[in-house]
Amino acid sequence: MNPEEFPRIEACFSPSDFHKYEEGFEIVVVIDVLRATSAICTAIENGVKGIIPVSTVKEARDYLNKGYVAAAERDGKIVEGFTLGNSPYSYMDGKLKGKTLVLTTTNGTKAIKIAEHKKTVVIGSLNNLDAITAWIVDRGENTLLLASGWKDKFNLEDTICAGAIIDGVLQSKTFRSNEDCSIAARFLSKSARENQFALLKSSSHRRRLQKLDLNTDVKYCLTPNNLSAIPILKDGILMSQENVDKVVKAENSGKLDGEKMVET
Ligand code: MLT
User: Fold this and answer.
1) Alpha helices in 120-174 (DSSP H)
2) Of ligand 1's atoms, which has the minimum distance to the CA of residue 86?
3) What is the 211 CA–ligand 1 centroid distance (Å)?
4) pLDDT in the model for residue 55
5) Which of 41, 142, 148, 252 is at 20 to 30 A from 208, Cα to Cα?
6) Residue 109 Cα: closest atom of ligand 1
7) CA distance 246 to 258
8) HSE-CB for 9 with a 13 A CA cutoff
9) Tens of pLDDT along 189-200?
10) What does the alpha-carbon distance between residue 117 and residue 91 come to, in Å, rounded to a whole number?
């Protein structure tokens, strides 16, 4: 194939820029390294059946009042009235295995909601770096990496993660990448790698989380390739490919009732 016809892999630095980049991209990978997408990947890898991302604390509270397991984070802290936030460590102990839960976070879930009209929304992080890279190459379609940033601002960790994914995907020699954002993300990712993530250590959200005594979370979220889960948004719920396949099978055979995804 002529390289000019290869599918594209590009980065978008913030949800507020999404409308400028989204045209021509039906696959969006949402990235929020600290900590939403790292927590989502961890939860799905540890057997959580589904995660319903919601934009507002009110929506999460409404679900909570209906008996759902609901998690809410704002500005790095668990919101009053909730017992779960988005520390990846909350999703490791198997207590939530088989459950579908609701999650709202400051930036990550907002980015997911912004992209939800696309054909496919998947979740990326440093934790599932190689897995998401291989998934993108395998799909072979135009893919936009959406950094969640911080309150619509650029952030280092999501950009560095996007750059690492682009680098990996381009190594396949079956994709092309044109945008300056993508070139900048790759430069940042390379210099972070050479500095053993020193660049990430000085990021503003890392400092914010440090003040909240969340260093252990940061260390975990900056660990590449300790997970292989690729959460996929299906009918508003993030789930594993295996569960997507089950839902599709049930839909096709008209037996969705027997395999309900939304369970509290
Ligand atoms: C977010 O979605 O903004 C983050 O996950 C914030 C956090 O680290 O708690």
Assistant:
1) 129-139, 156-170
2) 9
3) 14
4) 96
5) 41
6) 2
7) 11
8) 29
9) 998 887 656 777
10) 27
DSSP string, 159-200: HHHHHHHHHHHHTTTS-B---HHHHHHHHHHHHHHHTTTHHH
Helix pair 108-115, 36-45: axis angle to 10 deg: 80
Ligand 1 touching residue 159 (CB < 6 A): no
Instruction: State if residue 35 touches ligand 1 by the CB under 6 angstroms criterion.
Output: yes
Does 87 have pLDDT greater than 60? Answer: yes
* Ligand 1, atom nearest to 209 Cα: 8
* Ligand 1 atom nearest residue 39's Cα: 5
Mutate to test the pocket of ligand 1, among 31, 34, 42, 211 (most ligand atoms within 8 A of CB): 34
Name which of 100, 56, 63 is nearest 79 in CA terms: 56
pLDDT digits (tens, 9 = 90+) for 218-264: 899 999 999 999 999 999 999 999 999 999 998 888 865 545 555 55
Residue type, 137: V
DSSP bridge pairs for 51: 101, 238
Cβ of 76 closer than 6 Å to ligand 1, yes or no, is yes
Indicate the helix (H) or strand (E) that contains 115.
Answer: helix 108-115
Residue 27 near residue 144, CB atoms below 8 Å:
yes
Show the tokens assigned to 163. 């750059």
pLDDT tens digits along 106-128:
999 999 999 999 999 999 999 99
